[in-house]
């Protein structure tokens, strides 16, 4: 399974009462595919506020987005958690719905060792025929999956990719030794071009909600050999990549990108507590980024 070069980790639209806004979700899916050139969408990942969604809401979102996309892009369900049994159960339910793959985050809070990580992911993969994407994000989980563990998991046939947020160094080591059909994605927009340069496959992105078309152009330029143009586009986009998270002080994802979507005319509502909306200062900063 090739999920493409640019994957958007999609926000979850909410209404004024904090419930899922299905009409806005429909518009968002169309916008991300048609205007922002997403090859695939991650539904109910971190950017989709997975910690505050119930399993019932997640399954409804998987089904709804799959139907709305209608074959125009791949749908990847965020089914990972810090419970192997829970992740396995949700993955099986997502498979019944007909999603194209699953994203499995490194377990957070309970801090497993490397053998525990291997057994966690291998157990989930063995319970499904779906392609599985690993997700290493030590800034959120406190545990980082090692290069050795990632490469060990890459030998499992339906573990097909990793979303790597640890460092470009780690991406380089994985890309240097993984099977040819195992894809390495950057989970950090600002490291996307560097990831391609060291042999990575693409980017699983937040910024692609608002600059996806330009990011797709950057990736295409790099892959066609026009490195100068790719670098130029990266430099143009870099303030957006960094600003959506720094804003001007750190702002929890997806607060900034939801606000940015509103400025683009795509109203996806606010965030659920414990996340909060941007302050006036932060909102002005985001608006300036998009000018």
Q: What percentage of residues falls in helices of 4 or more residues?
A: 40-55%
Identify the strand order in the major beta sheet. 1-2-3-4-5-6-7-8
Work out the number of β strands: 8
Strand content: 5-15%
**Overall geometry:** globular
Described by strand count, sense and barrel closure, the largest sheet is: 8 strands, parallel, barrel
Average pLDDT taken over every residue: 97
Distance between the termini: 37 Å
Q: Structural class of the helix and strand makeup? A: alpha/beta
Which sequence of SSEs, written as H and E, runs from N to C?
Answer: EHEHEHEHEHHEHEHEHHHH
Low-pLDDT windows of residues:
none
Radius of gyration: 18 Å
Total number of helices = 12
Describe this structure in words.
Helix 9 (208-223) packs antiparallel against helix 10. The protein is built from twelve helices and eight strands. It is an alpha/beta fold and 291 residues long. 47% of the residues lie in helices and 13% in strands. The N and C termini lie far apart (37 Å). It has helices at residues 22-34, 55-69, 84-97, 114-126, 138-141, 147-154, 168-177, 192-197, 208-223, 227-246, 255-263, 280-289, and strands at residues 6-9, 40-43, 74-78, 101-105, 132-136, 159-164, 183-186, 202-205. The radius of gyration is 18 Å and the shape is globular. Strand 4 (101-105), helix 4 (114-126) and strand 5 form a beta-alpha-beta unit. The longest helix is centred in the C-terminal third of the chain and has 20 residues, at 227-246. An eight-stranded parallel β-barrel has the order 1-2-3-4-5-6-7-8, surrounded by seven helices. InterPro entries: Aldolase_TIM, DapA, DapA-like, Schiff_base-form_aldolases_CS. It is an enzyme of class 4 (lyase).
């Amino acid at each position: 399974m090739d999920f493409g070069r640019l994957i958007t980790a999609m926000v979850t639209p909410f209404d004024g009462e904090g419930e899922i806004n299905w009409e806005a979700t429909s518009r968002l899916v169309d916008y991300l595919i048609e205007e922002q050139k997403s090859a695939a969408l991650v539904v109910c990942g971190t950017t989709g506020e997975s910690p505050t969604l119930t399993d019932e809401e997640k399954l409804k979102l998987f089904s709804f987005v799959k139907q709305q996309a209608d074959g125009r892009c791949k749908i990847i369900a965020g089914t990972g958690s810090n419970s192997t049994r829970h992740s396995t159960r949700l993955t099986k339910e997502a498979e019944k719905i007909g999603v194209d793959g699953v994203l499995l985050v490194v377990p957070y809070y309970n801090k497993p060792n490397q053998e525990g990580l291997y057994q966690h992911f291998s157990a989930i993969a063995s319970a499904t025929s779906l392609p599985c994407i690993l997700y290493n994000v030590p800034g959120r989980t406190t545990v980082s999956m090692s290069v050795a563990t990632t490469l060990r998991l890459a030998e499992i046939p339906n573990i097909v990719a990793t979303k790597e947020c640890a460092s470009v160094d780690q991406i380089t080591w994985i890309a240097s030794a993984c099977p040819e059909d195992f894809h390495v994605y950057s989970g950090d927009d600002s490291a996307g071009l560097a990831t391609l340069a060291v042999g990575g496959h693409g980017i699983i992105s937040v910024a692609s909600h608002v600059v996806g078309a330009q990011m797709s152009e950057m990736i295409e330029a790099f892959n066609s050999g026009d490195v100068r143009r790719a670098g130029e586009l990266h430099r143009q986009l870099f303030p957006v990549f960094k600003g959506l998270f720094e804003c001007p002080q750190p702002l929890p994802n997806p607060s900034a990108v939801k606000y940015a979507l509103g400025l683009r005319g795509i109203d996806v509502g606010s965030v659920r507590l414990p996340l909060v909306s941007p302050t006036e200062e932060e909102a002005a900063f985001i608006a300036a980024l998009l000018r």
